[in-house]
Amino acid sequence: MRQRRRVRVAAMNAPAPADATPAAPLRLLIVDDQPIIRRGLALMLGAEPGITVVGQAGDGQEALDLALALAPDVVLMDLQMPRLGGVAAIRRLTAQLPQTHVVVLTTFDDDELVFEAIQAGAHAYLLKDAAEEDVLETVRAVHRGESRLSPTVARKLLQQFRLLATGWTAPPGEAPPPAHDEGRTEASDEPLSEKEARVLGLLADGLSNKEIAARVFLAEGTVKNYVSRIMEKLHARNRTELAVKSAARRG
After folding, report:
1. Residue 75: helix, strand or coil by DSSP?
2. Which residues pair with 114 in a beta bridge?
3. What's the structural domain count of the chain?
4. Do 41 and 135 have their domain in common?
5. Is 155 exposed, middle or buried (0-12, 13-18, 19+ CB in 10 A)?
6. Best CA proximity match to 141, nearest among 101, 109, 104
7. What is the C-alpha separation between 227 and 224, in angstroms, rounded?
8. Which of 64, 86, 140, 214 is 20 to 30 A from 95 (CA-CA)?
9. Distances (CA, A) of 68 to 54, 74, 105
10. pLDDT tens string 92-146
11. Beta carbons of 168 and 177 less than 8 angstroms apart
12. Among residues 93, 127, 145, which one ends one of the domains?
């Protein structure tokens, strides 16, 4: 009896198995042709917990070479660069490293450039006047598999989708036709329920399914079903298109 009690006490005091290992740091590659911006971003983001800046590149070709050598989780990339531009670099990088996500950080918000960057595979598009916390949160959100577009960029992207869908091409010097009322759905669209609209808004803010579930007090699986239903109603193929359409609905 005494021996059995000793065994039980020993088992209770035994250390717990070390199965909860710390998450690996986010590996970040920074690409910008201006050294002062590149180094400033490296200092700012590298000082954040859970982020390791694994490399810096000054043009698209160097970015591609470093990415292939280092396999970063996220690449923060400018677009207008020498040797190989950002759009071409994004296209090659995402084709060869599909697990690496790209965040565009640029001064240019030209409609065509925005569309080309997203089409090439960028997961987020920020302008360089973005707040530091926005850059940081976007990098982390993209690493979680989310997409981020500012409302301004989202509207430009949606306009490009509309022009492609209608096959309209602007004559030289003529502006695109005015967009339809972005607060409405198309006539063929089934209206969203109040709960679906809430889920869509949170999704557009960059929240994951798990985070949305906590906000609206639903199971994560239920949120996934909501997202699928919203994609069907709004004729979106992925979360990025949903974010675009949500930004347009907000006006």
Report:
1. strand
2. none
3. 2
4. yes
5. buried
6. 101
7. 5
8. 140
9. 12, 12, 20
10. 999 999 999 999 998 887 767 787 888 888 999 888 888 899 999 999 999 998 8
11. yes
12. 145
Whole-number pLDDT of residue 21: 58
Query: At which residue do the structure tokens 């996220």 appear?
Result: 74
pLDDT of residue 186: 42
Q: What are phi and psi of 105, to 5 degrees?
A: -130, 105
Kindly state whether residue 2 falls inside one of the protein's structural domains: no
Token duo for residue 183: 């607060």
Is 12 within the bounds of a domain?
no
What string of DSSP letters covers 107-158?
Answer: S---HHHHHHHHHHT-SEEEETTS-HHHHHHHHHHHHTT--EE-HHHHHHHH
Q: Please give the Cα distance from 16 to 14 (Å, whole number).
A: 6
Rounded to whole angstroms, how far apart are CA atoms 211 and 201?
12
